[in-house]
DNA sequence: CCAAAAGTGTTCAACATACACCCATGA
DNA sequence: TCATGGGTGTATGTTGAACACTTTTGG
């Protein structure tokens, strides 16, 4: 049997991507979900997803779908896992490649496209999901904790300028634990990844906290360094 | 447009799995590769792979393909990444889900099925690969280092009974670095995951090293604990 | 008896943790 | 002036790294 026939004799499948989109509003971690348009599923919320097109790579499909929803480009995007259980989609067998996205809530609010109805949900008020989406979400949360405990990934969820107390709130939300501000800021500053700005945050606290920005160059270089942000040591 | 039509209007694709199979022979890390049967690719070696069947989950496909090659079941298997570049397979667009397998070389030698021609290759004598397989291999090696640095995964590559010097050789092969035997054995024994047996290894060294086996129950429980096996702290 | 690998203990430095006080400012 | 959150330093215990000698036994 020649090669082409070997290929042709195989079953083909639908391939989709689904995005687990995290945001942080200063208080708690959120997921961005969209309202499903399908008639008998009105009022159900779902992960944003889409089909992979004929000549499109997986990364391109994930970026495109995210762009369609948020109007944002150059988002932190990471492939997580592929789900392919024969029963996972009752309509027709579909493989879904889950992508993990971190975006800054402020950017999204500004760039909002109205093609989809979307809303941020706190992790503790998530709706019931279709298919295996709840598994995707819990694996994504686990991955976020794991990753954040080891890499300085948190910055992706914050605006360009941020304060140390904001960053601490974020890490507390990710780990679901309170952190000591003295130890936290020491550990953080020891990475030398932050550049202190002259400007202070106004309006939130009386004293005002200094803004910092990330040292992009060092951030790229040190990304694969273990940093061990985490109280305890287990995830 | 109804749901079924939405599904039907989408392009379908071939879905395959490819396995990156690691083994350890006491000296160096190895990959198990198979000879390709295709005429004009004789004498080329490739990762073991296979198509995903119509009613088969990804995990099932990966286990089946591994079983066909090695006759082994209950292998350590982990999904790594999905590759889907439109150009990756020149014959026809195929998505490939890469799986990472750890097996014990001795088990394989005993269980050898002859349906495929297969051979172990040291990491430093790997052949040139087709498609994006060399990327899969390097990402798998990276993942093995990462995982082994944090989880006691090394046991999967050794026989049931093993000595501490064997385990040290394995970790040295994984990290490509020499380790201090005093520190290594202290760190290892402090996990309490090993059970010392009465028996000694004979024939290799004059004094003979004690065999150990793993405490399966604790191993399962502690699997998600960070153990920080690694000289330095970066991968 | 000697060569080769196994096995074990101590010291020092680095890091994580716990903890308390002063500072700046808006109201 | 006072209440609120921001910012910093120190002492202690734990952990990782570096390092050398004794033990066992096959040849």
Task: Give a description of the structure.
The structure is a homodimer of 235-residue chains. Chain A is an alpha+beta fold and 235 residues long. The first copy, chain A, folds into two domains: 13-127, Nucleoside Triphosphate Pyrophosphohydrolase (Alpha-Beta Complex); 153-222, Arc Repressor Mutant, subunit A. In chain A, 31% of the residues lie in helices and 26% in strands. In chain A, the strands form two sheets. In chain A, strands 1, 2, 3, 4, 5, 6 and 7 form a seven-stranded mixed β-sheet that branches. In chain A, strands 8-10-9 form a three-stranded antiparallel β-sheet. Chain A is elongated. In chain A, 32% of the residues are buried. The interface between A and B is large, with 38 and 38 residues.
Topology, please?
The structure is a homodimer of 235-residue chains.
Chain A (H helix, E strand, L loop, with lengths): L2 H6 L5 E11 L4 E7 L9 E2 L1 E4 L6 H13 L5 E8 L10 E9 L2 H7 L6 E5 L10 H18 L11 E2 H12 L5 H10 L3 E7 L9 E5 L1 H7 L13
Parallel strand pairs in A: 1-6
Antiparallel strand pairs in A: 1-2, 1-4, 2-3, 2-7, 5-6, 8-10, 9-10
Chain B binds a DNA duplex (27 and 27 nucleotides) through helix 6.
């Amino acid at each position: 049997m020649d090669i082409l026939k070997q290929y042709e004799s195989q079953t083909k499948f639908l391939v989709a991507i689904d995005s687990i989109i995290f945001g942080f509003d200063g208080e708690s971690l959120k997921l961005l979900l969209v309202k499903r348009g399908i008639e008998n599923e009105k009022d159900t919320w779902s992960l944003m997803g889409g089909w992979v097109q004929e000549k499109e790579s997986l990364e391109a499909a994930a970026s495109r779908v995210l762009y369609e929803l948020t109007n944002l480009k150059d988002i932190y995007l990471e492939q997580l896992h592929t789900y392919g259980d024969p029963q996972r989609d009752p309509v027709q067998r579909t493989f879904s490649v889950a992508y993990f996205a971190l975006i800054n809530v402020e950017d999204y609010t500004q760039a909002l496209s109205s093609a989809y109805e979307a809303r941020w949900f706190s992790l503790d008020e998530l709706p019931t999901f279709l298919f295996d989406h709840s598994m995707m979400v819990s694996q994504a949360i686990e991955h976020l904790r794991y990753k954040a405990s080891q890499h300085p990934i948190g910055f992706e969820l914050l605006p360009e300028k941020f304060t140390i107390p904001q960053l601490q709130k974020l890490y507390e939300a990710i780990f679901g634990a309170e952190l000591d501000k003295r130890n936290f800021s020491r550990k953080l500053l020891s990475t030398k990844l932050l550049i202190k700005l002259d400007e202070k945050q106004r309006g939130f606290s009386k004293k005002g906290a200094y803004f910092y920005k990330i040292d992009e160059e060092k951030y790229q270089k040190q990304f694969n360094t273990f940093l061990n942000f985490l109280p305890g040591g287990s995830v």
